[in-house]
Write a structure and sequence with these properties.
By secondary structure, this protein is mostly helical. It is built from 10 helices and no strands. The protein is about 75% helix and about 0% strand.
């Protein structure tokens, strides 16, 4: 077993021990789908949601919440804690480099996000007979770009923060505006044109739009995919440029 495999296994076990993380990543989206799905008539197409099935819309929101939670709060908080506790610095003098730990963590978090997405799809399909994403290829691409963009932003927050508390604080400061502008709290159909346009340029807003469109069989608009790719590349490059392995 390679150093990366060992670290990924250890980080996976540590993740599974965090009950709050498990509830947020796997329990919350499923609970949202079941809770709203039991509302009479909500599994029918909703005029207020551009004709989308209500349960399908909530499932897309659940996916977006998972990506935002992992990328904007989990990534900066854990990396900030590892740096503050000297874990990254100590790994620098071992054959297993700090970058290996960082890659293992990101792999575990991305795998958790994908498992959560699969669980949401299974629940809405089996419990409420909602069709699986019709444009499956675009749906997978949208989820992967959403993971890449939001994780990159989380890495950037961890890179520029002075300490673990700062990393977590920046993550939460990014989390709530992204959630609002993306349409998690208020459907974008009820927002003003200006607010919708601003939300489109956030990584979470583009991800949610692309997921919703591909689920109902519409090819996502190229700008949504381009915006997520731009966030992933730019934020990722800035994170690599300013990242510190040791506490300042």
């Amino acid at each position: 077993m390679t150093g990366f495999s060992r670290l990924a296994l250890v980080e996976g076990k540590l993740f599974l021990r965090e009950k709050a993380a498990l509830l947020g990543v796997f329990g919350l989206p499923v609970a949202l789908v079941i809770g709203f799905g039991l509302i009479p008539g909500f599994s029918d197409p909703q005029k207020s949601l551009s004709g989308q099935i209500g349960t399908e819309y909530i499932a897309a929101l659940g996916i977006a919440i998972v990506l935002a939670s992992l990328g904007l709060t989990g990534v900066p908080m854990v990396i900030g804690q590892y740096r503050e506790r000297g874990v990254l610095r100590r790994l620098g003098v071992t054959p297993v480099r700090p970058l290996t730990l960082l890659t293992a963590d990101l792999t575990v978090w991305a795998a958790s996000a994908l498992i959560s997405v699969a669980a949401v799809i299974a629940v809405v399909r089996l419990a409420f007979h909602v069709p699986v994403p019709r444009a499956a290829g675009w749906f997978i691409l949208a989820v992967l770009l959403g993971i890449a963009s939001l994780f990159a932003v989380g890495l950037l927050a961890a890179a520029v923060a002075p300490n673990a508390r700062g990393s977590a604080g920046i993550g939460w400061l990014l989390f709530f505006p992204n959630m609002f502008l993306a349409g998690i709290y208020i459907p974008t159909e009820d927002m003003s044109a200006t607010m919708r346009q601003v939300g489109n340029f956030t990584p979470l807003g583009s991800a949610l739009h692309a997921v919703r469109d591909s689920w109902i069989g519409i090819d996502p608009r190229p700008e949504y995919l381009g915006i997520m790719a731009a966030w992933a590349l730019i934020a990722g490059a800035l994170a690599a440029r300013f990242f510190r392995w040791e506490q300042a």
